[in-house]
């Protein structure tokens, strides 16, 4: 399957990545080679096979709804690049 | 005998007997790290005083008569994607900056409760994506057996540190072979247990359905001792299984009589270096001589395992790594115009190229129009692969295969061709897809003196069988006792 620069642009936008032009061309080529190789999966007939996301038959796991202390807000904010006393700070998003 | 040449259990025994104190052991390890770090770059963070005071604490507890564990006071290292409270956890990525988690991973709590002494955090491929430990923001790790070669990856720092005698055991993570392959390249023993047996709470996620943590140490017995401490149900990991912890070390008898071991012919064909094949087949002979029945069988699904793996791993990675956005943790780019630009700039400058490649590949296979053809297809193939292993384990107790097609390549040889690097994961990735336990053990050296590993694979929850056979092998061989020439010997 041909991977165009436009396709790389689309998935880059979805992934919040901005590749420089020369990297875009290289990435398109690499993705194309990888996907070409993956074609081998199509030689296996899986029409009757259910997709398997979890390998063991673990069903919903429930626990009692008991309130417990969670992490301290100050501890969590300490790792942020730019926090204030109570929040993560980001550029204004709504004009 | 110098302390660094002991196994973890031997050191633990000396500590319990009062012949060596935990502080002496930690000091010896720190001296060794000081000597080796400039050569192999195995650590990202070394804890000096903190390690010594943790050792002192363990010493006090032992003196007060606490039983703790066979590994109490034995210094260890953790891969840098395992969260440690207040201690930098970087995933070897620029984007996490100096992130110091506000909590310990469950596994870290368990090791500490057992008298574990943390020496530091180990280098790795960025976000555990890679097979060489060269993609680290903190510089490549080098193989202690030959500093011009890679240690394997992604837990390359863990394997290199154990091989170089800088710590007696380490915990790594394994999503597609990241414990087993570096263990093989560095001549040490490493085990990925059954998916769900070690809580993933506090492991920075790469591909959640495949990720599992496990030990790297000198011997299978050491690995059993570590697994006895870290396995078990954790309510904070919804995928963790109801398993009993403990008993693996005590269960090692060395008896493999009557055990049926299958050699998948499809793992010994094209692409495998003759020296690796010869050593792995010789390992089968050792087990045969101890009374195991070994025979070949066909496992034709091998040609599908790498493509299925990379589709699933990339898809999950693209989703898991969306949390790194320059807002909540670590590093943020400068000069952004708005929020979207902040995200894009931070991620573009903060992630390395292998991570970006997998994020983009994952976004592609999950995107509208391609989801069924690639991602769903891979999940169907995963079911077929799982069934093939289920059938194999109706006939055999264990399987024996190579760990990697070759010994460690030179630095810089692998990254130019990502697809070729992916293909070298062929023997290890199916276990992650099928959730099975696997162990890598040293079984020889190539003509250039580089270690070769053999992989033992068990059925789900077959840890005791895998470790039992590896222990039996190590009773009759001495590959696991060999150490690279350190800086002091050159």
TrEMBL record, chain A:
- E.C. code: 6.3.5.-
Q: Which SUPFAM superfamilies match?
A: Glu-tRNAGln amidotransferase C subunit (SSF141000)
What molecular functions are annotated in GO for this chain? ATP binding; glutaminyl-tRNA synthase (glutamine-hydrolyzing) activity; transferase activity
Name the domain of life this protein comes from: Bacteria
The answer to whether UniProt assigns keyword Protein biosynthesis to this entry is: yes
GO BP field:
glutaminyl-tRNAGln biosynthesis via transamidation; regulation of translational fidelity; translation
Which reactions appear under catalytic activity for this entry?
A: L-glutamyl-tRNA(Gln) + L-glutamine + ATP + H2O = L-glutaminyl-tRNA(Gln) + L-glutamate + ADP + phosphate + H(+); L-aspartyl-tRNA(Asn) + L-glutamine + ATP + H2O = L-asparaginyl-tRNA(Asn) + L-glutamate + ADP + phosphate + 2 H(+)
**Main EC class the enzyme belongs to:** ligase
The protein's UniProt keywords, in alphabetical order, are:
ATP-binding, Ligase, Nucleotide-binding, Protein biosynthesis, Transferase
Which InterPro entries does this chain map to? Asp/Glu-ADT_sf_sub_c (IPR036113), GatC (IPR003837)
Q: What does this protein do?
A: Allows the formation of correctly charged Asn-tRNA(Asn) or Gln-tRNA(Gln) through the transamidation of misacylated Asp-tRNA(Asn) or Glu-tRNA(Gln) in organisms which lack either or both of asparaginyl-tRNA or glutaminyl-tRNA synthetases. The reaction takes place in the presence of glutamine and ATP through an activated phospho-Asp-tRNA(Asn) or phospho-Glu-tRNA(Gln).
* HAMAP family hit by this protein: GatC
Task: Describe its partners and assembly state.
Answer: Heterotrimer of A, B and C subunits.
* Family, per entry: Belongs to the GatC family.
Q: What is this protein called?
A: Aspartyl/glutamyl-tRNA(Asn/Gln) amidotransferase subunit C
Which organism is this protein's natural source? Intestinimonas butyriciproducens
This protein's encoding gene: gatC
């Amino acid at each position: 399957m041909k991977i165009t620069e436009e396709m790389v642009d689309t998935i880059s936008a979805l992934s919040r990545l901005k590749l420089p032009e020369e990297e875009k061309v290289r990435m398109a080529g690499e993705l194309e080679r990888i996907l070409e190789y993956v074609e081998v999966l199509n030689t296996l007939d899986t029409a009757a096979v259910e997709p398997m996301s979890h390998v063991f038959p673990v069903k919903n796991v429930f626990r009692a709804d008991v309130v417990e202390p969670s992490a301290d807000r100050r501890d969590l904010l300490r790792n942020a690049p730019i926090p204030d006393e109570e929040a993560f700070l980001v550029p204004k998003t709504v004009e | 005998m110098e302390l660094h040449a002991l196994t973890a259990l031997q050191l633990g025994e000396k500590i319990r007997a009062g012949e060596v104190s935990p502080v002496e052991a930690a000091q010896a390890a720190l001296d060794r790290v000081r000597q080796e770090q400039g050569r192999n770059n195995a650590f990202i963070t070394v804890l000096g005083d903190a390690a010594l005071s943790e050792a002192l604490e363990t010493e006090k507890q032992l003196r007060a008569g606490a039983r703790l564990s066979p590994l109490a006071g034995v210094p260890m290292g953790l891969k840098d994607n395992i969260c440690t409270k207040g201690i930098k956890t970087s995933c070897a990525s620029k984007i996490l900056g100096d992130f110091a988690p506000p909590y310990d991973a469950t596994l870290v709590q368990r090791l500490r409760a057992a008298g574990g002494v943390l020496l530091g955090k180990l280098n790795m491929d960025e976000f555990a994506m890679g097979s060489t430990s060269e993609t680290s923001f903190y510089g490549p790790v080098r193989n202690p057996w030959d500093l011009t070669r890679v240690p394997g990856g992604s837990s390359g720092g863990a394997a290199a540190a154990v091989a170089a005698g800088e710590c007696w055991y380490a915990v790594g993570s394994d999503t597609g072979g990241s414990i087993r392959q570096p263990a093989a390249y560095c001549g040490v023993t490493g085990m990925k247990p059954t998916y769900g047996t070690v809580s993933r709470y506090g492991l920075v996620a790469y591909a959640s359905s495949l990720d599992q943590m496990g030990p790297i140490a000198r011997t299978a017995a050491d690995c059993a001792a570590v697994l006895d401490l870290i396995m078990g149900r954790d309510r904070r990991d919804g995928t963790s299984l109801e398993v009993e912890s403990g008993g693996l070390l005590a269960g090692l008898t060395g008896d493999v009589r009557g055990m049926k071991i299958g050699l998948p012919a499809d793992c010994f064909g094209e692409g495998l270096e003759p020296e690796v094949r010869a050593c792995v087949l010789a390992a089968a002979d050792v087990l045969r001589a101890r009374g195991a029945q070994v025979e070949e069988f066909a496992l034709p699904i091998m040609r599908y395992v790498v493509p299925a793996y990379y589709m699933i791993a990339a898809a999950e990675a693209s989703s898991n790594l969306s949390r790194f956005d320059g807002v909540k943790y670590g590093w943020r780019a400068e000069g952004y115009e708005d929020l979207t630009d902040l995200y894009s700039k931070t991620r573009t400058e903060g992630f390395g190229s292998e991570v970006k490649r997998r994020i983009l590949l994952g976004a592609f296979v999950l995107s509208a129009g391609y989801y069924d053809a690639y991602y769903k297809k891979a999940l169907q193939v995963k079911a077929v692969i799982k069934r093939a292993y289920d059938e194999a384990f109706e006939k055999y107790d264990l399987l024996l295969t190579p760990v990697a097609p070759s010994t460690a390549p030179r630095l810089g040889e692998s990254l130019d061709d990502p697809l070729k690097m992916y293909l070298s994961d062929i023997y290890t990735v199916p276990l992650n897809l099928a959730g099975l336990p696997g162990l890598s053990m040293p079984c020889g050296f190539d003509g250039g003196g580089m270690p070769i590993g053999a992989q033992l694979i068990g059925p789900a929850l077959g840890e005791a069988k895998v470790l039992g056979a590896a222990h039996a092998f190590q009773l009759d061989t001495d590959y696991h006792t060999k150490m690279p020439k350190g800086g002091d010997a050159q």
